[in-house]
Amino acid sequence: MSIITDLSDAFGEAFAALDLDRAFGEVVVSQRPDLAQYQCNGALPAANAARRNPRELAEAVAAVVESPIVDAVSVAGPGFINIMVTDEALAARAELLRRDDRPALAVEGPKKIVVDYGGPNVAKELHVGHLRPAIIGESVKRLFRLVGHDVVGDVHLGDWGLPMGQLIVELAERRPDLPYFDESASGPFPSESPVTVEELNELYPVASARAAEDPAFAEAARAATVALQSGRPGYVALWQHFRGVSVAAMRHVYDELGVHFELWHGESTIASRLDAMIARLEAAGVAGESDGALVIDVARDDDTFEIPPFMVRKRDGATLYTTWDLATIEDRIETLGADVMIYVVDNRQSLHFEQVFRAARRAGIAGPDVDLDHAGNGTVNGPDGKPLKTREGNLPLLRDLITDAVERARQRMDERDLARGLPEAERAGIARLVGLAALKYGDLQNHRVSDYVFDLDRFTSFDGRTGPYLLYGAVRMQSIFREASARGLEEGEIIPAKSDPERDLMLMLLRVPEVVDRAVAFRAPNHVAEYVYELVASFNRFYEACHILSEQDEARRASWLGLVGVTRRLLGSLLDALGIDIPERM
Ligand code: ARG
Q1: Is 442 touching ligand 1 by the criterion CB < 6 Å?
Q2: Whose CB among 308, 408, 455, 495 lies 3.0–4.6 Å from 559's, allowing a Cys bridge?
Q3: Pocket of ligand 1, candidates 117, 261, 345: which has the most ligand atoms within 8 Å of its Cβ, to mutate?
Q4: Domain containing 182: what range?
Q5: Is the pLDDT of residue 103 over 90?
Q6: What are the backbone angles phi and psi of residue 265, rounded to the nearest 5°?
Q7: pLDDT by residue (tens digit) across 235-262?
Q8: How far apart are CA 456 and CA 468, in angstroms?
């Protein structure tokens, strides 16, 4: 299906015919589109290995290569092979893509994949630190889905640690009359939460500051956490309220952002597995005692730096973050049948995941056929290159970042006179989509592991590599279609190009399989982000050059409309995979 694959096969064949390794036949998109469409650089290493002259070898390959889609082959420089494909082949393949773009993207052997992203802690408001995991995780999930895998996203709430005990103790001091603190009470407890989310947001920082300063408070919080984890009814009921009000608020912000989780699991989800898992680890001799704690030695002889032991249980008997992640792997395999788990979590947790994954392997929880992968992300920085802060020095809240982006998008639209004359509700809706596209594209255009500078002025511009530029292009494609159908014109078969912009657009469209493969393989949506920009830019050049609706040649016009159609649909699926929605008009 893919041109690159077919050309690589043909050139591999040619190398084999000269008694050389077929792998040298690998073809790539040309770095110099002015000289060639594709190129094969294998003659250089092949000549090196065979102690032959690279240029002569390249000539020999060019002389024997056989492919119905190759139009011309020439040798350049020290032995690069430049390749041009026939216009017939380009048109035929663009036409296949026009009829159905799924085969170009589909994988063989779909897998069950869990993407773990979000990771917010209960009782804390979503802030800038949650932006990247949300945007990248959602996109990774959608990319895997686009190619045909069975994927679920799990928010994996931080809901089982010490902060829960701190909240309980703080609230117990403030409102001792509440029924949850009576040790002998077994319920039922009130169904209404004793605190609102605003109260929770106020309680949490106070409680955690106190725990840091006051040893007695810290000890009480620790004891309350243990009691909660062992199922004390009043605490469990109260904790459910904390979790409930907090989740409702988080859900709202994630909804605003267009980020949706199939699973709202958390650290607590696997609580009932812990005892049995730990007993098995001990019985199998995988976990052993160290200083009163229970640990798994996960170091390896070939480690280049020290990997500390993996903590299963602390000296005081409590389980911890590490334990819960290990049990979660077991749970995802047993209850979801997961083949692949991808964690879109801050780079700074890479040691943690290295330990968890090693522990899971060593314990036999994840066999060799299960893929565990930390797809780490970098930070969002301010203009000073340091993690973004508000003027007061706090972490900006996610909802404020969204509001700012949408407001800025609205101003930009007004400057450009966009969406003028549309009803106010629609304009607000468009500004929302433009603002979100700006925010998401500003993030996704960077490789996930890099940090980037948060610059709403740049992100919301309608020029350059931005979300608004892409949406403007997509809307233009839609309006060409509306206009065409108003005139009774329809898209038709794509025929061989007669101009460069037309040919270039076909070449660009036909790159999509490799782009998506790369994004999936590296869990790196930036490959798709980069490509959609190139695609829209290529489309815009085509649109400038080819006056579609006034074209008199009927077959040509239908073919051009066909190119608009395939570009529009492909762009739509790829933007959707980035989590970016397109307005109807603007
Ligand atoms: N709640 C964690 C934190 O705030 C992030 C969770 C990431 N996911 C995971 N499976 N550990 O640091």
Answers
A1: no
A2: 495
A3: 345
A4: 156-260
A5: no
A6: -80, 175
A7: 999 999 999 999 999 999 999 999 999 9
A8: 12
